[in-house]
Amino acid sequence: MISQELLDILCCPETKADLVLDGDTLVSVDKATRRRYKIENDIPIMLIDESEQLDIETWKEIMKRHNKPTE
User: Fold this and answer.
1) Is 70 inside any structural domain?
2) Residue 17, burial from CB neighbour count under 10 angstroms (0-12, 13-18, 19+)
3) Which distant-in-sequence residues (6+ apart) come within 8 Å of 22 by Cβ?
4) Which domain holds residue 57?
5) For residue 42, what is the domain's CATH number?
6) pLDDT, tens digit only, all 71 positions of the chain
7) Domain for residue 25, yes or no?
8) Whole-model pTM?
């Protein structure tokens, strides 16, 4: 599990946006890119080429779950 301290300093490598911890992934709060990064063995894989771009509806659901704005 990623500590809150680490989560507080991590950001999206593409946009520098904040990230939310969603299960075993980190999701960027940036609406334009909607990047999701995997966490493997408690290590975030923060490579853009290894990330997934979420569809807008999935991204909005995750943001709502974490009380983040979607507009």
Assistant:
1) no
2) middle
3) 36, 62, 65, 66
4) 4-65
5) 2.20.25.10
6) 788 899 999 999 999 999 999 999 999 999 999 999 999 999 999 999 999 999 999 999 999 999 999 98
7) yes
8) 0.93
